Amino acid sequence: MILGAGDFLVKQLIFDSEGQWTLWLQYGIPALMVVALGLALFWVTGVNRGTCDFFIATEGEMKKVSWSDRNELVGSTKVVIACTLLLGFLLAVVDLAFIQFFQWINVLRSGP
């Protein structure tokens, strides 16, 4: 990911002038960013013992998770989609009712 970010930055840093310093800037800034992010990643994962312990504990907890099977996942997805459509329809009806009420008491005027 760090190298991809550096490559993206190289492609984005395009200068109009033709001086020698523009080449140094176009490739130097992404190189410094890659080195800095690489050192930060090394410090987080290699030097900082607390982070390593956290990753190890997270891996252990992920092994305890019981993942849903395909049928349960499809059923839950259908319930979520149905509830979302139902709620959207209900909110549209309530919105139309409020529009009619405010037009009836002359607070909301529609048209020119």
Number of DSSP strand runs? 0
Catalogue the unreliable spans.
Answer: none
For the record, the count of structural domains works out to: 2
Largest sheet: none
Average pLDDT, all residues: 89
Radius of gyration: 28 Å
Strand content: under 5%
Distance between the termini: 55 Å
Query: Structural class of the helix and strand makeup?
Result: mainly alpha
Report what the structure shows:
This protein has four helices and no strands. With 112 residues, it is mostly helical. It has two domains: 2-64; 67-112. Helix 1 runs antiparallel to helix 2. The mean pLDDT is 89.
In short:
This protein is mainly α.
Helix/strand layout:
Blueprint: H1 2-12, H2 20-47, H3 49-64, H4 70-104
Which short descriptors sum up this protein?
single chain; 112 residues; mainly alpha; 80% helix
